[in-house]
Every structure is written in C-alpha cells, then in structure tokens.
Known about the structure:
This protein is α+β, with helices and mostly antiparallel strands. The strands form 2 sheets. Strands 1-6-5-4 form a 4-stranded mixed β-sheet, with helices on one face. The protein has a 4-stranded antiparallel β-sheet with strand order 2-3-8-7, with no helix packed on it. The longest helix has 106 residues, at 93-198. α5 (284-296) runs parallel beside α7. β5 (39-44) and β6 form a beta hairpin. The chain has helices at residues 93-198, 209-222, 250-265, 272-275, 284-296, 300-313, 318-330, 334-347, 356-372, 376-389, 394-408; strands at residues 3-4, 9-12, 16-22, 32-35, 39-44, 47-52, 57-67, 70-77.
Amino acid sequence: MPLLVTDYSWTxxxxxxxxxxxxxxxxxxxxxxxxxEEYLKVHYPPYLFEAFLFEPxxxxxxTAKVGNGVAVISLSKRTNKVWEHLMxxxxxxxxxxxxxxxxLLTYQEKLSSExxxxxxxxxxxxxxxxxxxxxxxxxxxxxIQKMKDNEREKxxxxxxxxxxxxxxxxxxxxxLKLQSxxxxxxxxxxxxxxxxxxxxxxxxxxxxxxxxxxxxxRKQANLPAPRLTGNxxxxxxxxxxxxxxxxxxVPEEEDWLKKQAEARHxxxxxxxxxxxxxxxxxxxxxxxxxxxxYFATGDYLSAVNAYSLAIRLNRKIPALYSNRAAxxxxxxxxxxxxxDSSQALDLLTPPVVAxxxxxxxxxxxxxxxxxxxxxxxxxxxxxxxxxxxxxxxxVLQADTQRIKxxxxxxxxxxx
Length: 415
C-alpha cells in the first residue's frame, strides 16, 4: 500500500488555493500529478497525496511546479470565496471512490483530447508544409519555363533577324551585279563609238566617198572586240599560325588547315530526318552556337541534343565532341564524357599551335571524368598532358598536385 502524505501545507486567497507537498527526496521525473475540478493526486512511489477538494476549481487555469524537493500546486477557484477546509470532511469511502474514478476518467479524456489535438495540429502542419513545397516547386517550374520561353523567343528573333540580313545581303548583291552589268554595257557602247569615230579621219572628196566608206567598214569588220576596262584587286592570304616560318611545322600546319576545310564542307544530308530540317538547322555552326547558349543557361540536355544533331550533320568538327563531353560531365554521364573527349582528341591532330587550347580542354574533361570514376591514374595522365600544353596554368597545377596526393594517400580531404 502507498504511504499517505500528511505533512503537506496549504494557503488560499479569494481566487486561488496553494498546496505544497514535500517530495521526500524523490526526483522530478518520478512525480505523477493528476488534477481535475474536484480531485488532486500527487503520486511519487511509495508516497501518495490525494485531496477531494472542498469546492470545484478551474482545472484549465490551475498550474503545478515541481522543484527544490517540493511540489507546489496552484488551483484557481471557480467562485471567489474563502474555503473552510481544503478537502471535504466526509469519510464515505464509496463517495471518495466515485469521485476518484470520475476524476481519472475525466483526466484520461483530457489526455486523449490533447493527443488528438496534437495529431491534428501535426497533420495540419504537414499539410501546410506540403502545400508550401508544392507552391515553391510550381514557382520554380514556372520560372524555368519562363526562362525557356524567353530563350526560345530570343532565338526566334535572332533567327528572323539573321534571315532578314541574309535577304538584304542577297538583294544588295543582286543590285550590285545588275549595276555592274549596266556599267559594262555602257563602257562597251562608248568604246565602240570611239572606234567608229576614229576610223574616219580627215576630209574625203565626193568622188572618193564610196571607196573610203567601204574600206572603213572592212577595217571595222576585221578589228577585234574592245577589251573591258576594270581594276584588279590583289590581296595576300594571311598566315593562320602566328609562329615564325623557321619555327613552324609547315606540313603539320597544312594538314591541320586541310582537315579544318574538309570538316566545314563535310555535311551529311543523306538521312531522311535531316532533309526535313530548316536551312539554318542544317548548319553545324548555327547548332553549335545554340548548344553553347543552352549550356550557359544550365539546360544541359538541350545542349546535348543540339551538339548531337550537329555531329550527325558533320562528324569532323572536334569542338562539337568536346562541348558535348562538358555537358555529359554536368549530367554525370561519365563514360560518355570520356568517349566524346577521346573523339575530340582524335580529331585534334596533328598537334599545332592553333588547337592547343582545344586539346587542353579535352584532356581536362576526360581527366575529370576518370577521376570521378576513381580512376585517378588515368585522370593524372590527362591532367599532365594538359599541363604540358599550358605549363603556367595555376589551376591545372593545383588539380594535378591534388590527384597525385590522392594516389599517394596524402590528400587531407580523403583521410
């Protein structure tokens, strides 16, 4: 049986009753307090304090504080008056049992209601958080779609402007050609007139007029057509490679220029799908510019599609493979990045000054893909190759040293 606490104390005002129950050395977390309108229980095994209150109290406004070896309960009275006693004076056990059971039932219903309210509140908070998240996602999708629409409108406007410029250029060339033809005709007519006037010089006697005119006509018939006058423009082809002739590798440079010229003209239009493309969409350079713009805005999938279509049209332009490798790196398609970088390096031969930057980029992209696949030895070879091309690049130096540290196990970030 529990030990009943009798050494409690209580005081009151017109509106509040204060009860102090000693805890007899028990810890706070082991004190169980139940309070209702007509019943109060403080249980800390093996001790028990219970009070069958003299008057009903407002349980919602009542409080309890536990600490410093005492539990202080503040009960708010329903009516402002002084109590004669703290508890009812009856010794009827059945009545006390009924009050106790009714109080416990009321307390359990209160706990159940609070639990339901807590669950409903959590559900409402989750629902609100989900609605906010969906709203943010929708705003983000709308923002991305707006960006795409703006880019599409911008591209359409640029294409329309380009077509207009091409049309104006064609019209100007046609006008210049027509004007040139007219000038040539006028020059030819003036020349013929001069030759005709010059062939009949001095005075001719009347009896000799017929013979002179016949001779003049025969001379004109034997004369060759007059030459057209004009200016011949002489220009010199500039050297593509800045190196001095004594330092350059002329055969390799000529081979590289030949490959570039072939690549610009090697357009594959045999595919049925490619024949349905618009004129500007059949231009690999135009598609490359589109891919570059998509890459700059972070739309890597669209950039891959643009580069892939350009490659189908022309498989000999190394920049298309190198740029598509950069997109695959962003999309974590590491094996495809290695494949495209290797293809770009195969096309960037022979190694000359004009393709140094492109070769360095391709080596770095392939090396980065190898490192992300944890093939650090292969990645180090590509970074060293890029560093050999650009030996003063500080970023390349730092990345190469970090890969060496990872291979040797001295990188602090991997320890």
